[in-house]
């Protein structure tokens, strides 16, 4: 006997154990399509499919791509919220397609899926990430130390000091926060929440000696002071980072010069 | 077609690729080609930690780590390589800390360590705290830290460039690496990268299984590229099934959960691992735990109405400990299963996780063309490679270690080679094979669909060459894969465009998976013994007389164009450890 096969679809129609009350449903996905090879205009296109509502939006996009329309284009990789490839605007809110279950979206109505805003759309749900990564690189997102001789062992850090920047180490650079920010939509020059989060991660790391430099970068006219505290970024973060709080901490550090 | 010229080209931007890039960029003009963006690589999904005998929290030393690695690999490990891995582990962790990696800390402020499967004190006496970790997102922290340091070093990336072919050119009777051919996803343009040295660091092949912890993008691209050019693949029959994947989804739940005290239970609530591994219990090596889980399931002690899974029980652990040490995996349970791990056990099943086999290399990361001869200018590191430090079964936390130790070694070795070697003249039409492959797929009108063939492949692999194998099941797989390879010739894609044609990309990836699945099945059929991750019910014992050797699989093309796989074998390097019966 071979390894037991655990096939989600082999019992098509039979309700899954433990989920007897949730049979497959028919859902409509209304997807923003854009392919400049075909047309300069973006259009909405509806797709209907039978799907288990406990599946992810990413599963639905795959079903559409694999069974209905191979031209549907989106980025994805890990499919469980770690790699940050599949941030998109789902029912008007920035989320990761792989962390959003269909049942949580009111599938009785069409579910809208469109690219994240504020970055140039290249094809369907794929946007140009380069401005986003440029802002990230601009805050010097790496440990900078003054010491001339490297220690032989690890640098010491207390658990409390380590905890100080724990939240902002969770960032996966998916751009859900930055592309949910109205300031960023209006002015692509703003560094945006993700870059500030990554600056925060180093400014508040007790091992780092370049906090002042990073604060000066963020003191720029396109820096933290552009933040209007709308909390869109915090709502959008699929990693649960308190983004707005981190931005506020950077602002406070700029005033007090203590961090 | 565009031609680029670099000293060193690195294929892949996960942990191994970026660790190599940091070294290579300091020493040579380096380009990193990745089919994703660097921070999207699957290193980021690794959770539990990175092994190193720092001895920060209890007595430990690299010799014990070496022994555990060799025993964990069921003695198929090359012992010289395992010794390097364990010795250099300490500096590899310290390097990362100095680069800024935020490890969890002990009360003294040093790097904290925790228990992990198969890692023991004094040659198997009891579990030891050897895994250096950052909550349950150690891989994420490693990937971010390495990317941060690539930014710092000014590493040059070509994002969304998909390498499809390895250029080998014969110079004075010696086959050398001349560069690679890549497809630019954004434009559909073909690029040739001429380079003195090429390092493959493109990851694993897990997507030929259905229930897997692997990303959609892990399709064995590097392995396939060199294999098609006549280079061998080593030990491809050895694939690791991680015991604790989320039931039916395969999403990884770290072994660190058991390191923190989590317990596996069957439907009777019994801690069944006590029967199978009296000393290490839930922290036995992964192959042992995965087989134990399926034994429970097959003997009717599985959970749920279909009895097709077991439970990972964390309910006895304080919620504060789960929040501090295992925040991500507890969130996965909440998000994908709607389960609260504070109070409810998590349904799990083994999930296809890691390829022990791959492109054979020596300890400098140089790729081998046979049992002993290197291919000048060609390197590999990480999951794509087979050094072999993992043998027949990798220990948890040794892969994050592997990418750092051998990524660094390959980066240095390749750049040093680049410093003295000269570029090799490209073949006349270097991109001809790739252009033909792409155009054939783009314009084909056959009626087979990528998704159907891939689904059938994955179902066949799960059913026939997973945790338990027999001659019959493997033969079934070999036949099915041959049929799917035939059908693949009639595959067509719907997207005929050039811009971000991921439809085409998936078709190319499927071709890679089919080739590698065949190598795996054929290698498994010939290995008539059970060792580590390769368990044959018809040959349940390890056979050191006949099979204490690495499999080397070569693609052969006959005069009439027919393809076949030729198997050869390579001796295992044994230094100080004699094979013993493996007990946990």
Q: Give the integer mean of the pLDDT values of chain A.
A: 91
Radius of gyration of chain A: 22 Å
- How much beta of chain B, percentage-wise? 15-25%
CATH topology of the domain at 432-571 in chain B: Methane Monooxygenase Hydroxylase, Chain G, domain 1
According to CATH, what is the topology of the largest domain in chain A? Fumarate Reductase Iron-sulfur Protein, Chain B, domain 2
Question: CATH top level of the domain at 432-571 in chain B?
Answer: Mainly Alpha
Number of helical runs of chain A?
A: 8
The separation of the N and C termini of chain A measures: 62 Å
Q: What is the rounded Rg of chain B? A: 23 Å
Main sheet record of chain B: 8 strands, mixed
- Biggest interface between chains: A-B, 69 and 83 residues
Number of strands of chain A: 7
| CATH architecture title of the largest domain in chain A | Orthogonal Bundle
Low-pLDDT stretches of chain A are 1-20
Shape of chain A: elongated
Main structural class of chain A: alpha+beta
Number of strand segments of chain B? 20
What sequence of helices (H) and strands (E) makes up the elements of chain A?
EEHEEEEEHHHHHHH
């Amino acid at each position: 006997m071979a390894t037991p096969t655990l096939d989600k679809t082999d019992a098509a129609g039979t309700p899954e154990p433990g989920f007897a009350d949730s049979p497959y449903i028919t859902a409509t996905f209304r997807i923003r399509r854009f392919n400049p090879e075909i047309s300069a205009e973006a259009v909405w296109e509806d797709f209907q499919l039978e799907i288990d509502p406990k599946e992810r939006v990413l599963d639905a996009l795959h079903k559409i791509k694999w069974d209905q329309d191979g031209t549907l284009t989106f980025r994805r990789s890990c499919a469980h919220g770690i790699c940050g490839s599949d941030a998109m605007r789902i029912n008007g809110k920035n989320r990761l397609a792989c962390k959003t279950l269909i049942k949580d979206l009111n599938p009785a109505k069409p579910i809208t899926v469109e690219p994240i805003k504020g970055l140039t759309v290249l094809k369907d749900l794929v946007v140009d990430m380069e401005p986003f990564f440029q802002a990230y690189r601009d805050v010097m997102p790496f440990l900078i130390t003054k010491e001339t001789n490297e220690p032989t062992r690890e640098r010491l850090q207390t658990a409390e000091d380590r905890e100080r920047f724990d939240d902002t180490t969770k960032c996966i650079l998916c751009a859900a926060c930055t592309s949910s920010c109205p300031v960023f939509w209006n002015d692509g020059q703003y560094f945006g929440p993700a870059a500030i989060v990554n600056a925060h991660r180093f400014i508040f790391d007790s091992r780092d000696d370049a906090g002042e430099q990073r604060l000066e970068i963020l003191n720029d006219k396109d820096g933290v002071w552009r933040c209007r505290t709308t909390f869109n970024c915090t709502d959008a973060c699929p990693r649960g980072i308190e983004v707005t709080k981190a931005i506020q901490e950077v602002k406070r550090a700029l005033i007090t010069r203590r961090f | 077609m565009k031609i680029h010229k670099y000293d060193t080209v690195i294929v892949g931007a996960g942990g191994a690729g970026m660790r190599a890039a940091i070294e290579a960029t300091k020493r040579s003009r380096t380009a990193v080609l990745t089919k994703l963006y660097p921070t999207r690589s699957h290193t980021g999904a690794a959770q539990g930690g990175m092994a190193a005998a720092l001895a920060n929290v209890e007595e430990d030393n690299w010799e014990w780590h070496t022994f555990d690695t060799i025993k964990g690999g069921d003695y198929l490990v090359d012992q010289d390589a395992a010794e390097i891995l364990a010795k250099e582990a300490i500096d590899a962790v310290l390097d990362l800390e100095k680069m800024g990696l935020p490890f969890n800390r002990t009360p003294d402020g040093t790097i904290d360590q925790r228990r992990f499967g198969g890692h023991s004190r004094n040659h198997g006496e009891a579990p030891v705290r050897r895994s250096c970790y950052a909550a349950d997102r150690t891989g994420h922290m490693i990937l971010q830290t390495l990317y941060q340091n690539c930014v710092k070093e000014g590493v040059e990336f070509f994002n969304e460039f998909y390498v499809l072919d390895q250029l080998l050119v014969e110079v004075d009777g010696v086959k050398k690496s001349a560069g690679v051919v890549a497809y630019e996803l954004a434009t559909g343009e073909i690029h040739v990268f001429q380079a003195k040295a090429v390092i493959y660091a493109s990851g694993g092949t897990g997507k030929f299984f259905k229930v897997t912890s692997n990303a959609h993008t892990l399709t064995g691209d590097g392995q396939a590229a060199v294999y098609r050019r006549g280079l061998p693949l080593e030990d491809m029959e050895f694939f690791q099934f991680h015991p604790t994947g989320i039931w039916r989804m395969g999403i990884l739940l770290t072994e660190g959960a058991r390191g923190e005290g989590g317990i596996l239970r069957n439907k009777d609530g019994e801690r069944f691992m006590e029967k199978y591994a009296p000393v290490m219990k839930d922290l036995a090596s992964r192959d042992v735990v995965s087989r134990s889980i399926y034994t429970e399931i097959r003997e009717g002690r599985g959970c749920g109405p279909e009895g097709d899974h077991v439970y990972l029980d964390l309910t006895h652990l304080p919620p504060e400990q789960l929040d501090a040490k295992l925040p991500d995996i507890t969130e996965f349970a909440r998000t994908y299963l709607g389960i609260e791990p504070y109070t409810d056990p998590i349904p799990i099943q083994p999930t296809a996780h890691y390829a022990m086999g791959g492109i054979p290399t020596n300890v400098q990361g140089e790729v081998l063309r046979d049992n002993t001869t290197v291919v000048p200018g060609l390197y590999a590191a990480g999951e794509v490679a087979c050094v072999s430090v993992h043998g027949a079964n990798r220990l948890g936390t040794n892969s994050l270690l592997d990418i750092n130790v051998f990524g660094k070694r390959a980066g240095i070795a390749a750049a040093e080679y680049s410093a003295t070697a000269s570029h090799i003249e490209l073949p006349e039409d270097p991109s001809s094979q790739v252009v033909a492959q792409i155009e054939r797929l783009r314009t084909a009108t056959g009626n087979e669909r990528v998704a159907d063939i891939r689904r059938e492949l994955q179902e066949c692999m799960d059913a026939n060459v997973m945790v338990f194998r027999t001659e019959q099941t493997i033969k079934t797989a070999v036949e099915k894969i041959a049929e799917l390879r035939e059908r693949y010739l009639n595959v067509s894609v719907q997207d005929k465009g050039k811009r971000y044609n991921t439809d085409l990309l998936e078709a190319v990836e499927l071709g890679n998976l089919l080739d590698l699945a065949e190598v795996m099945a054929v290698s498994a059929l010939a290995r008539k013994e059970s060792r580590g991750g390769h368990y044959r019910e018809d040959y349940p014992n390890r056979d050191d007389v006949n099979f204490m050797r690495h499999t080397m699989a070569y693609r052969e093309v006959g005069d009439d164009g027919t393809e076949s796989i030729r198997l050869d074998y390579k001796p295992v390097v044994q230094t100080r450890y004699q094979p013993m019966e493996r007990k946990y």
